[in-house]
Amino acid sequence: MKNFKLYITIAALASGMALTSCSDDFLEPEPTTKGASGATGDVLNINSGLAASYQILGFDSYANGSYESSVYIGDIQSDDIWKGGGDANDGMNGMNLAVSMFNTSGNLTLNGTWNIYTSGITRVNSALGLVATATTENPAEVALIKKYKAEGLFLRAYFLYMLWRSFGNVPFQEDLFEPPYVCRQLSADEVYAQIIKDVDEAISNFTDDEMNTNDGTNNGRAGLAAAYMLKARAVMYQKDQARYQEAAKGLAAIIKSGKFELVKDYAGMWLQSGEFGSESIFEANQVPGSKDWGTAWNPGGSNLPSYISPNGLGGDPGYEGGWGFGPVRPETYEMFDNADQRRDVSIRDLRGDATGGNVGDKNTTPWGSSYVLRFQDTGFFLGKYAARTGYHKPTGTGDLNWSNNLRIFRYAETLLAYAELTLTVGDQDGVSGVDCLNQVRDRAFGDTNHRVTLTLQNIQAENHLEFVGEGHRYYDVVRWGITNVLHVDNVPGLNTSRDWKEFNKYVAIPQGDIDATKGSEFELKQNPGY
What we know:
3-stranded antiparallel beta sheet
């Protein structure tokens, strides 16, 4: 069942920072500056400002009117799926093709991702501005404001991380609470340093009792475990070995806390009944709302399920059709052992009589369901975030308002990231790296007969199997330096090769923002190679 507490609380607050503007003027400064510039911080308006910040997580898949789910964008750059859709250029007038082929430009890049997360930083800066002005001697309020500060710092670090991993060199200033919101562009290394600064301060402000927030009241709010996970992700992506031990100790603290455990039923974890479960460390709570065509900044749910589900699907109980993006490559399906329960959860096998046929043909599966073939069809589709019957009751457009929660951090990643770090720093605080790796293996097979030794190759393989369809693979490939797997001699439907070059680690910065700052002291520079 969906937890609406955070949203209801905000809607009920008449003072302080407004939740958001519900129109295309969302990025205007007024809604996000009322609290910081016109009120002293207190628990009510700080919480309101935080809710406005959390709401950014709900724009992941229809960012500024752009179809840029972080899951899909990560996966189309990897070796797991093809772009799909109606034709080669379908998907934001060719943007998805440019991203998938490592061929972005200032005029064809992740504008939505840039806009939502820079906006998110503006929002959370306003909330942190209220924290800085708060004065109270009430012990309960002091503790709550400290917790809110930790949440705000975590969110800012997370938004900055999402910008950093896509764009590298992004503008940022931590005390930017009021308009005109212009600031210096940081280098990628400076951005990383800021992420670590914020997340370390968040960790210091959370208490040990705030390790897990999934208590039915605070579902969807960040806690100490989420902060430890974000730090580990950033440190590992940066390959900052000087911080590997402290990152490993943070993950060991999550493991030793006993607050999380792997869900035995891998399939059940992806149902609504599995949201905020024992494996969930941080989820984006996708609440169906009024999001509609042309109102991209309205509150609402996710577009991802429609985006990745087969077009014109019929006769498949429990599932609905979608737009046919992101068909899974056959070799991704084939890498799984037949006994691995993750395979048929992660990937839906809809191969039938017309698989590999022409776009527009009808494909009938062996069990009688059917769908319409689209570009780069393989007969395989992503399953974890599939469009499921009954998952949205919106007032806006159904395709934009699915309620499938986005699982951002889950305990399986804690175990595998810790195991990987121990290859460099050894076991920490009595937690066994090899045991963590094999806990994930045991869950996948339902027995203890498939255990492996602790090697980088085994960890890489297990990450690949565990996180298909969650947007991890591309960033793992980059940080491991195995980008040779991204090469494709002949991309289906395009009759051309795909090659990754070092500068492709980052996509191009939006040209409109570069033009808007041209000639000023805050002029943005395009990333090298574009």
